[in-house]
Amino acid sequence: MKQNGKQHTKRTMALAMIALASAGVVTQAEIFVVELDGRSFVYDGLADMDIDLTINVGDTVRWEWISGFHNVVNGFPGDPDEDTLFNSGPPTSDTSTFFEYAFDDEGVFGYHCEVHEGIGMISFVTVVPAPGTMLAMAPVGLMLTRRRR
Ligand SMILES: [Cu+2]
């Protein structure tokens, strides 16, 4: 029967899409480590405002205390959004300290150390939509369109 044939095709397509998603096409959340070292934030060999860190929505930044007396507070110093998203607490020099924040929204997010903001211990992370988001949504749209015919 033709009707059964169509149903079968739809199911096969749906299964193929699920397989595609579980094969890793949809990006997994990642953790990016920024070090607090000396009097700077350091990532990938660059410090403070020279850091070029772009992550996907859902990814986490993990700040690790390597040396010095620091804390991490969101926002550029003096901005209205300062200390509204995250704050690692009072400054510490304990090198077992780490602080993590998962970014759920896109945008440019500044952060700084309250001890050393005056000497430029300020940086930012750029959060962009996860590439998997579009891929994951496309098959759903395709299936809905086909079902209407
Ligand atoms: Cu500091």
Question: Any overview of this molecule?
Answer:
With 149 residues, the protein is α+β, with helices and mostly antiparallel strands. The chain folds into 2 domains: 2-26 and 133-148, no CATH class; 31-130, Cupredoxins -  blue copper proteins (Immunoglobulin-like). The protein is built from 2 helices and 9 strands. The strands form 2 sheets. A 5-stranded mixed sheet has the order 3-2-1-5-7, with no helix packed on it. Strands 4-9-8-6 form a 4-stranded mixed sheet, with no helix packed on it. It is globular, with a radius of gyration of 22 Å. The protein starts with a helix and ends with a helix. Mean pLDDT is 84; it is low at 1-5 and 15-20. The site of copper (II) ion has 7 residues, from loops.
What's the CATH class of the largest domain, please?
Mainly Beta
Percentage of residues in helical conformation:
25-40%
> What is the SS-derived class?
alpha+beta
Tell me, rounded to a whole number, the average pLDDT.
84
The structural domain count equals 2
- Major sheet details: 5 strands, mixed
Q: Examine the coordinates and then state which fold CATH places here, giving the name of the CATH topology of the largest domain.
A: Immunoglobulin-like
Overall geometric form? globular
Highlighted features:
149 residues; alpha+beta; Immunoglobulin-like; 2 domains; five-stranded mixed β-sheet; four-stranded mixed β-sheet; 28% helix; globular; disordered N terminus; binds copper (II) ion
Quick overview of this protein structure:
The chain has 149 residues and is an alpha+beta fold. It has helices at 2-25, 132-148; strands at 31-37, 40-43, 46-47, 54-56, 60-65, 73-74, 98-102, 107-112, 122-128.
